[in-house]
Amino acid sequence: MHPSPTVILPIRDFTGMSRLSSVLTRSQRSILSQYLSERAAASVRDAGLDLVVVSTSSEVEAWAKSRGASHWPDPGRGLSAAAASAVDRMGNSSWIVLHADLPLVTAQSLDTISKTLRHSPVLVPSHDGGTNVIASIGEFSFAYGPGSFHRHFASYPHATILPSPELSIDIDGPAQFNAFSHLAKASTIAP
Description:
The protein is α/β, with parallel strands linked by helices. Helix content is about 40%, strand content about 15%. The chain has a seven-stranded mixed sheet with strand order 3-2-1-4-6-5-7, sandwiched between helices. The longest helix has 21 residues, at about 25-45. The model has no long low-confidence stretch (mean pLDDT about 90).
């Protein structure tokens, strides 16, 4: 029996999502960010997995603790450093780095990642060539940024590539937000 992986959810703060500034105000982006983070946290809980939130924000820390999640500090040098700091802290344990801007994440999709992880590291590509989910055991060389999926796969060619309708789509810009306009109503940011 393999121990269940811990989900690492990096959330710098709730005021990000700056690529949506042409369609949403700062306040609306904050509401959307919290809504998507809630969805991610609920999916982790429903999958029966432990959650660690990595952040520089005291607001995010309070949010994480109120949801029963652990909070670890983000070293503040970008997403790769945030993920690496959490993985380093976990030692040789299994983990899943999940992004908070995935509108379709489900407990079932996380369960699929957990089961696949028993056999090999897992990479879930984003629709635009990024990496939305990485799962492994122990150390990992994170290389986030545009085109990160190819860098991650080049470093870990034995990883299982797991395209996933629930995990490959993220809200990175106006086009993705518009494709999920129901989020505006669900997160109460619409007029």
